[in-house]
Amino acid sequence: MRNGAKKVTLYARGKKIDASSHEVAYTRLDGAELVFSRAIERITPDGPVFRISVFDEEDRVTGYEEEREQVHADSTIIAVSQGPKNKLILTTEGLKGSEKGLLLVDENFMTTREGVFVAGDVVHGSKTVVHAVEEAKKAAEAMIRYMER
Asked: Read out DSSP for 65-134?
């Protein structure tokens, strides 16, 4: 695992992810585990809490099981696609957003909640992939510095 991680698990709400088979293969080769049908509900000091997705015949998410699943994690990283997710702000204590619903961050891409970092579209709105990747690299470096202190 990279940067001293002992275990990395990637969760997806659906039965697949928007990544190429090449990207998925490299992810698995790097040692990460993929877990599907899990929708994040909130982040606690112990790690994320998920609900199990329920699907229709076309594999579209139609709802969630009642039971919650607490996953214990030292770090939680969320990829939220091209825009802000108000659910994160509403269900995660300490996260604050702008009037446009974008997450507020400092110069190190740390949110208003200690130890929670974000980058890309959820910070500035929709921009290029190159811009998001550049910010993600800076955020990752800041996370490493944060965890090493």
From this structure: EEEEEE---S------TTS--HHHHHHSTT--B-TTSPBPB-TTSBBSSTT-B--THHHH-S--HHHHHH
Pick the CATH number of 1-76 from 3.40.190.170, 2.40.170.10, 3.50.50.60, 3.40.50.150: 3.50.50.60
3 state SS of 12: coil
> Could you report the per-residue pLDDT of 115-135, keeping only the tens digit for each?
888 888 888 777 677 788 888
pTM of the shown model: 0.57
Domain ranges across the chain = 1-76, 92-149
